[in-house]
Amino acid sequence: MVDTSPDTPVRKRGLDPEDAQEALDRVHELLRRQRMVEDLVHRQEEGDARADVVESLVHRQHDAELRTLLNALDPADIAFILESLPTDERQAIWRLVRADYDGEILLEVADWVRESLIATMDQEELVAATENLEADELADLAPDLPPEVVAEVQKGLTDEERARLSAVMSYPEDSVGALMDFEMVRVRDDVTLEVVLRYLRRLQELPDHTDQIFVVDRQDRLQGSLSLGKLLISDPDVKVSDAMDTGILSLAPLDEADEAAAAFERYDLVSAAVVDGLGRLIGRLTVNEVVDYIREASDEQTLSKAGLQEEDIFAPVKSAIRNRTPWLLVNLCTAGFASFVASRFEETVGQIVILAFLMSIVAGIGGNTGNQTMTLIIRALAVGRVSSANLVRLVKREFLIALLVGLGGGLVAAAFAWAISGRFTLGLVMMAAMILNMMIGSGVGILVPLLRDRFGKDPALGSSVLLTFATDTLGFLIFLGLATIFLL
Questions:
Q1: In whole angstroms, how far apart are CA 156 and each of 123, 168, 290?
Q2: Are 435 and 299 a contacting pair, CB within 8 Å?
């Protein structure tokens, strides 16, 4: 990406999400005006020099306005704008962003946008964008960068930075080690608080999200932490060993990120130490990384429930079809099987036509019940609240809820079926079918995510499709089967 603006960027706006939305609206307006001018110019006679001049001037004016607008925003807001634009407009805006921002923006944008931006940059631009990133930040981008770019950037790193980069890249994607950073303040326990204060004053700035200073011994083994608040209000002559807190949470690099996120939520942490097997301090995990991880995991879970993978909302139709088709075909097969089950009761439906209108209610209520149960179970699994010790109680609770709700809803449905058909027995069949299908929905809502989690799979992936298959097929079978037995 090439940027010719010589001015040093000055961010005039504060950190406000509304600024990004307003800027996006302004970008849309400028791009729309630019397209209007291009359309007018193209209607002129081909080769009209005046039209070409007008188009060039308008382009320059719009580019200048867009560049000024973008360079006043935080990189996170620019990332939001890029994610909200179709591919061609995204590339046009990306060319206008200052090169100073490239690395930060690539870190902020979603993976599917990052890939499209990197594809437009040559090796020299990518090296310039990433050479000033920290080791943990470079590790985030490395999977999307060409190997030659990573190799070139590594040449400019110190031995310590290269070791850090290799360490972060060696950890599993959803582990603490893959999320930790190395920028932190550490002190010895045998110095006074006055020494610590003098040391801090010599630093140009504290690492982001520094709420505590880690205390280590001469072998870098973690001893405790000293909060900034305690450092400021305590007597400067007090030793660190007397002021530090030894009861702190520490994490191992191979700990699961889900468990670390739950710990941050439970204990209201801003940062936590990461130690190796020997107890040596090797990094820290901060709340900003945890929040990003939780957001990405939540997005993936939402998509997984519908059988989708992460997708650029402006991606070409062909790639969108490849993403969405597999589970839709599965859904087609399951829906076809449910229809086949219903067709086996053609004679029953032919004699009692009202059944054709009521059976969709039975299937729909069962599906909704299962969806509620499944959502709760998936969330409980995500935060580690489901275990062998409480599983039986949890299953009993969900079945009891389904039974009681089914009794109440079944009475309403029975009264409705009786009212529109004039047959009391049909109302009873409707009630029984609803209760049974709601129990089935709850059972499937528990079973599917638990089994997928047990075998190391995403518990949300395609769960809604499987649930719909069960509640539709068995709902039709139960309702029409009961109707055949008791009404004919």
A1: 15, 18, 29
A2: no
In tens, the pLDDT along 422-448 reads 999 999 999 999 999 999 999 999 999
What's the whole-model pTM score? 0.71
Kindly report the average pLDDT of the chain as a whole number.
86
Closest CA to 402 of 452, 443, 344: 443
Look at phi and psi of residue 405 and say left if phi exceeds 0, alpha if psi is from -120 to 50, else beta: alpha
SS3 61: helix
Q: What angle separates helix 17-43 from helix 75-83, to the nearest 10 degrees?
A: 50
User: Residue 314 in contact with residue 86, Cβ under 8 Å?
Assistant: yes
Task: Extract the tokens encoding 7.
Answer: 């001015």
pLDDT level of residue 313 (50, 70, 90 thresholds): low
Find the DSSP H helices in 44-99: 49-71, 75-83, 87-94
Tokens of 88: 């061609």
Confidence of residue 49 (pLDDT cuts 50, 70, 90): low
- Measured CA to CA, the distance from residue 49 to residue 51 in angstroms comes to 5
Tell me how far apart the alpha carbons of residues 415 and 311 are, in angstroms, rounded to a whole number.
46
Segment holding 225, helix H or strand E: strand 222-227
DSSP state letters, 393-411: HHHHHHHHHHHHHHHHHHH
* DSSP per residue, 463-488: HHHHHHHHHHHHHHHHHHHHHHHHH-
For the chain, first and last CA: distance in Å? 75
**Sign of the CA dihedral with 124 first, then 127, 132, and 137 last:** positive
Nearest CA-CA partner of 238 in 194, 198, 200, 197: 194
CA 158 – CA 169 distance, rounded (Å): 17
Domains in the chain and their CATH numbers?
17-174 (1.25.60.10), 186-305 (3.10.580.10), 317-487 (1.10.357.20)
For residue range 67-95, what is the model confidence (pLDDT) as tens digits? 888 888 888 899 989 988 888 889 989 99
74 DSSP 8-state letter: -
To the nearest 10°, report the CA torsion of 397, 400, 405, 406: 140
The H or E element that residue 344 is part of is: none
Helix/strand/coil percent split, the chain, to 5: 65, 5, 25
Tokens 């030793």: give the residue: 239
State the CB neighbour count (10 A cutoff) for residue 438: 30
